[in-house]
Queue: 4 jobs
Job 1
Amino acid sequence: MTSRLMKEVDLGSVYFPTGRVCCCDPFLSADVAPFNYTIAPGHYPVRITRTHVGDWGWRNAAASMVIADVLPDNSICATYLRDNESVSGFRVESGLACFMDESTREFFSRIVAEFHNRDAKANYYDDVLAAEFARNADADERDQLGSWNIHFPLEGDPRNIAMFASGLGDGQYSAEWMLKNDVLCKLVADFKILENDVAV
C-alpha cells in the first residue's frame, strides 16, 4: 500500500433537527432523499480526511459525520428510496458534496430558488459561498479558494450544511454507515482517492 501524506480537519457541527440525513451535491439536492437510517436529532461534528495527490496538491479524500467517536468494526452502504427503489451513491456536478438534515435540504432548495428568482443571472456559489469557503482556505492550498465550509442559509436560523470539495471534482460517489457492535457511529462519504486506505 502506497504511503500517503494525510491530515484530518474538523469543520464544526451540523444540526440535524429531524435526524434524517442527506449526503449529496448541495445544488442537486432534489435528486436524493434521506438515507435509510435515522439518527437522534442533535448536533454532530463533521471531519474531512485530506490527502496529497501529486500535482493536484491537497484534496478531500473523504468526509465523516461523527455519531460516536469510536473505531468502527463494520460498514454498510448508505441507501435511500427513489421511485420506490433503493438507490446508493450520489452525483456531483458542482465539485461540492455536503451533509445536511432532510428539513435543511428542503429549506436550502427554497433559499436557492428564491435567490435565482430575484436575479436569474446570479450565482449562489460565486455570490454567497465563495467568500465563506475562502475564509477556511488551508495554508497548504495553492489556489486559496477553500475546500470546506459550514454554511447557514439564513442568518439566525440554526439549520446549517457542511459543504466540502469532492475529491478531484465531479463524479458519482458513495457513502457508507460505519458501525461499532452493530450501532451506527459514523457516516463516511468516499471520494475515491484513498483506494486501499480506509477513510474513517
Job 2
Amino acid sequence: MGKRFTACICLLFFIAPGLNAQNLNAENPFRMSVRFAGTVPHPVSNKAFRRSFTGIYDIGASLNFQVFRGILVGIQYQHNLWKIPDNKIPGLKTYGQSHHGGIRVGYDYVINSIAVGYAGVSMLSGRMKFYGISYTPDTTRPPLETSFNYRMIQLEAGVYFYTEGNFAIGVHAAGSFTSFAFDPYKLYLDQHEPYLPADLDGNVSYFNIGFSLVYSFLRKG
C-alpha cells in the first residue's frame, strides 16, 4: 500500500507539468470551488486508541468561496471509518464511524500556470459511533457507551494541478486534533485487551495522507 501510494504521487508530479489546462496567470481566476479529499487516517494519540484501532478511510468534502485574493472560506463535511484489526485485538469485528461538519478557512497560492498549493484550517463538531462490540455484561461497572460527541480542528496542506478546464487533481495531507478522550473501558475493550492508566492520557489525534479533487467555477471578471 505505502509503495503504491508513493509511486502514484511521483507519477502525478511527473505528468502534471505536461497536462493540458487553462492558464492561471498570477491568481486563481475562480470565485468558488468544490473540493474532495480521500485519505487514510493514521492515529497518533491517545495510546489506547492507537493500540486498538486502525484507520480505514477518511473522506472530506467542502464548498469554498474566494473572498480575497487567495483567501477562501467555506463549509466542510468529514467522515471516517476505523476498525479493530486482528493484529491488535484478535477476533473482534468492532468499527468506529464518525461524521463531522463545520467551517473551513483556506489559502490558495498559484505556483505556475496549472499548479496551486494550498493550506487550510477547519473547525468541526460531530459524533463517533462504535458498532460490532463484543462484551460480557457486568452490573458492577458503568453501562456500555457507544456514541461520543466531540470537536475537532483539522490542519491541511497540499497541491493540485488543473488537468482539463476547471477540474484538478492533487495530493493532500492533514492533521486532525480532537477533544475526544478515548476510554476503552467504556466500550468494555478491557475484557479483550489489558490497558494501563497511562494509555488513556491525551485526546485522539491523527494524520491523513491521500489524494484531492477540485472543481472550480464562477470565473472572475
Job 3
Amino acid sequence: MKAIVLSLALAGLAAPAFAWTAGEVHISCFRGPWKEVIWDRPNPEFIDSLVNQGYSLTTATDLAHRICRDPGLVNNRGALRSETVRIINRTPRDSGYGY
C-alpha cells in the first residue's frame, strides 16, 4: 500500500488553494462562521486527492463529507488526521475512478 501523507487545512470563510502530488491525501474542509456544524463540507482538493488514491468520485465525496461534518473532529487536527487514516484503512478502493 502506498504511503499516504495527510496534509491538514481548515478554512475559515474562504477555501484554501493547494497543490498536491499523487500518493497524498489533503484533508481540507470548509468551516462556516458558526461553532455548530452547519456549513461544513469538504473542499474539492480533499475529494480529488481521495479520487487520486483510487476511490470513485461518489465514495470519495461520501468519505470527505463524513470527515468534514463530524462535530468531534472540528478544530481538532490530530483527531481529524487519525479518523481520516482509520476510514481510509477500512474502506476498500473502488475499481475505476467513477467519472
Job 4
Amino acid sequence: MDKNVIFDPAAQNPGNNTGETVPEVIQGGETTSVSASVDSISTDATSTGVSPTDNSAEIQSGDTTVQSAEVTPASLPPKTRGILKKIIIGVIVLIILVFIIFLIVPKGSGNKKVKLVWWGLWEDTRVMQPLISEFQKSNPNITIEYVKQDPKQYREKLLTRINNETGPDIFRFHNTWVPMMSDVLLPLPTDVISPNELKTDFYPVVQKDMTGNGAIYGIPLGADTLALFINTELLESAGVSPPQTWDDFVKAASTLTVKDPDTKKILTAGAALGTYGNITHAPDVISLLFIQQGISINKFPEASKDKKVAVLNFYTSFSKGDQRVWDSTLDESLLSFARGNLAMYIGFSWDIFKIQALSPDLAFKTYPVPQLVGRKSTLASYWVEGVSSKSPNQKEALLFMQFLKKKETAQKFYSEVSKTRGFGEPYARSELAKSLKENDLLFPFVSQLVDASSSYFASDTNDGEGGLNSSVNNYLGNAINAIVNDNSSTETVIETLDQGVAQAYQKYGVQ
C-alpha cells in the first residue's frame, strides 16, 4: 500500500360558570329566589292559612266548616306554575342525556384486558421485564409478553407472521428496514411522538431514518456508530499515536505492520481494510468512506462516479502490492484483533464484548474514526421498536410506544442491560450522552452520533436472502473482490455496482 495514497485530497480541505340567572319570584315588594322545594312553591297557600305540608286546607266561618279543594298545579299562581314547568322540562332533558351517554359509552371499556406480544432480538426477558412492569403499573389492563427471537432469517419470519395475522403487536427492526417494512409498519400519531420531539430529543440520523411521507415509524432505545479500536501495546511499542485523519491512519498502518522477512507474510497487520470476506463490518467500513466523501447512500447509483472510484481505490490499496498491510490470508479482523495480531480495527460498540470474551487480558482503547481534514462524520447502525399495522390492539400498542420514548425508559433500559454486561446500549436520546462521558470505551461511539449517517450497505442485519441489505452488500462484495483478486478496473466495477444497487433500490422503493 502506498503510504501517500489519500482518497480525494481535494475533499479534505373555560370554567363551570354558565352565566345563567336563577329565576326569582317577587312577593310583597321583596325578591325571593326560587328553589325546587315544596316550601317555595306553596308560598301563596301559606298566606291564607294553608299548611305547606298538607294536601288540603279547611276554611273556618262561624260554625260552618268548609273543606277546601285539593291543591293542584292548576291552583298555583301563574308565575309559580311557569317555574315548575321549567324544572320538570330540565329534569326530563337531564334524564335523556344520561340515557344517551349510557348507550354510547361502552360498558367497562377502561377495564378491558389486552395482551400485547413484543418481539425482540438481543436482550433476554429478564432484561426487558422491568420495563414492562413499570409500564403495567399505570396500565394494569395491558399485559405484555416479550419474546426473544433468533436473529437468523428474522425479517422473513417477521413479515410472514405479520401478513398471516399471527405476528407480534410490537417488534424490533433495523434502522435501514423502513423501505422493506413499509407495508406492515404503523405510522406513529403525533400524540405518541411528534416531529418536533423526534428532532429535539433524538439525533439527526434517527430523525432522517424514521421519517417518511410525513410520518414517523419507529422509536430507538439505543444507537451505535463505527469507531476505531487500537491495541495500546502495539501502538506504544512503535511510538505511534492514535490517528485522527486518514493521512495519519495510512502512515500508522504502514509503521505497525510486521512481515516475515523471507516470505513477506504478514505477521502483525497494521489495519484491517482492503478485502471483503475477512473484514468484520466490511460494508459498513466502506460506507463510512462513501459518506465521508459526500456520497448520498440513498442516491448512490446517481452519485459522482469519480468519488466512488476514489473510495474503492483508497480502500483496496491497503491489501494490494508489496506495501499491503492486510490481505485475504489473515483471520477475520475481529478475531485477529482479539488475538493481538492486528493493531487497528474499525467496529461497533457491541464488538467490545466479543473481543473481551475472546481475550480478557487484551489492552485496547477506542477512538472516533479517522476523518478527512475539515470534515466530521461516521456511520450509524441501530435497532428500532415499531408497531404492526395489522395489530388488533393498536391503541394499547401505541400507549406502550409512548412509554418507550421517555427519557426515564431509556435510562432504565440502559441500567437493566448493564446488569448483564459491562454497559448498556449507547443512548439514542441526545440529552443523555453526557451521562456516559466517564466510560472511556463507550463514549467515543456516543460522541459521534451527532454527526452520523446510515447506509443500506449494512452488516449483521439478518434481513435474509433477497433483502435490501443482503442484495447491495453482495454487489459491493463482488466489486471489491473483482478489484483485489481479478485486477478489474475500478471504473468498470463501479458501473456494475451501480446497476445492481439501482435494481435493489427499485425493488424496495428506496427514495
